[in-house]
Amino acid sequence: MSQSFYALIEESFPADRDRLAIEVADRGAGRSQWTFSELSADVARAASLLADLGLEKGDRVALQAEKSPEALILYLACLRGGYVFLPMNTAYRTDEVDYLVGNAEPSLIVCDPAREGEMRAIAERHGTAFVLTLDAQGQGSFTEEAAAVRPSRPVAPCASTDLAAILYTSGTTGKPKGAMLSHGNLASNGLALREAWSFSAEDTLLHALPIFHAHGLFVACHCALLSGARMIWLGKFDRAEVMRQLPRATVFMGVPTFYVRLLDGEDFNAPLVAHMRLFTSGSAPLLTETFDEFRARTGMAILERYGMTETGMNTSNPYDGERRAGTVGFPLPGVEVRVMSDEGQELARDEVGGLQVRGPNVFGGYWRMPEKTAEEFADGGWFKTGDVAKIDADGYVHLVGRAKDLIISGGYNVYPKEIETLIDEMPEVDESAIVGVAHRDFGEAGVAVVVLRKGKLLDEPTLIARLKDKIANYKVPKRAYFVETLPRNTMGKVQKNLLREIYRDACR
């Protein structure tokens, strides 16, 4: 029996396939609506186009184009035909794309028309046979050629272990690694989220996330598609447009930056969101301050969850139950988590160590990197997430920091999140980041990089003195710098690798 994830998606469509599946809210021209029936037909045409080009099951299809429903259709067509989808960040420059294409060796690249010449050069260099185009309005050779195809091929039979997508990690250290995600990985995680977050055909998801990332492509789209829910599609997060569309939605998914921007104006209030069922946050830590302000303003608690490229979602605060600020909740159905010491012993509640996860959501390994794959797994199929965490007495998972962000100062472990939380609680501070840099005496020392609130003043001696009153001296940063903004990637994560480089000589 086929275990194609696409077959599961189509089975989950509503009985009335004339119901609206996707509505594009901010498209200036071109098509703006798809029923479930029309979506199914367009996916079938696109999958037939790929087959007519000569692609075979398992071949890779790379996409670097602006967000559009047509881009989602290409992804679904890959699932339908048994091809492997490779989304590429739209911000990637030529060298970054060149590396990914050389590593994944796709048979087809679909790109923005403005980059067609550049992509053809990359394709020729790496033996990619086809290049098609697709713009933000859904126009390009991909849609033109797909529209002319007669959909005549059935859904490709797939095993749960068959590869569905390769998503490359951010590559903050070394070259990006391609996480191989199977049909079974995606199906198990999508079904777990549908259950955990009570998605149904009565929902309308306001989709403002990019789709080159697991959050927007998998978490958001899979929840809607697997429940027959409608999506209101925005090309990007625009506060004014989100405010206009929220009264028509029941669910909104965002990164913390989205919520900070929404709270920037008094027009974001309880009456505006009284009809909303769920707000979720992920991809970066949600500040307790943001969580508390959102609840005070709206009467609703943001549901924070935790996942990663290699695993999809692992944990979630409860839909029914207490959503605790500063935690990422409990393991999702079918997922196990544990906290381990450096010596490989499972730790007790409230002890800090390396977080490991196991379940049908966990990827099969890194593309063409068997040695790296072996390094990242412990016996028994446990994946070493690289996150430092603890599980409290009530079972809530707390992320303390990334293992690579751990600072070892004078032989003591310093967890940046602990210090960042204390600094962020200071009335003058908007947000902060702690990074480790070389120190002649201690080997490594912490440096605080701090963004102040508008109109507030704070100096380095005062900040450090306050911290010395609250934490052991070895945890206190040796230096503090004040900046206007922290550098972030497209998903809102603070780029600590850049901060480490900028302040590398701060303690020499």
Short overview:
The chain is 29% helix and 25% strand. The chain has 508 residues and is α/β, with parallel strands linked by helices.
What does this structure look like?
29% of the residues lie in helices and 25% in strands. It has 15 helices and 26 strands. The model has no long low-confidence stretch (mean pLDDT 94). The protein has 3 domains: 34-182, ANL, N-terminal domain (Rossmann fold), CATH 3.40.50.12780; 255-402, ANL, N-terminal domain (Rossmann fold, 3-Layer(aba) Sandwich), CATH 3.40.50.12780; 406-502, ANL, C-terminal domain (GMP Synthetase, Chain A, domain 3, 2-Layer Sandwich). It is globular, with a radius of gyration of 23 Å. With 508 residues, it is an alpha/beta fold. The longest helix has 17 residues, at 36-52. The strands form 6 sheets. The chain has a 9-stranded mixed beta sheet with strand order 2-1-10-9-11-12-13-14-15. Strands 16, 17, 19, 20 and 21 form a 5-stranded antiparallel beta sheet that branches. α2 packs across α3 (69-81) and α2 (36-52) packs across α6.
Question: What is this structure's SSE topology?
Answer:
Blueprint: H1 5-11, E1 20-24, E2 33-35, H2 36-52, E3 60-64, H3 69-81, E4 84-87, H4 94-104, E5 108-111, H5 116-126, E6 130-133, H6 141-147, E7 163-168, E8 178-182, H7 183-196, E9 204-207, H8 214-225, E10 230-233, H9 239-245, E11 251-254, H10 256-262, E12 278-281, H11 288-298, E13 303-308, E14 312-316, E15 330-331, E16 336-340, E17 353-358, E18 365-366, H12 370-375, E19 377-378, E20 382-391, E21 397-402, E22 407-409, E23 412-414, H13 416-424, E24 429-439, E25 443-452, H14 460-468, E26 479-483, H15 496-502
Parallel strand pairs: 1-10, 3-4, 3-5, 5-6, 9-10, 9-11, 11-12, 12-13, 25-26
Antiparallel strand pairs: 1-2, 7-8, 8-18, 13-14, 14-15, 16-17, 17-20, 19-20, 20-21, 22-23, 24-25
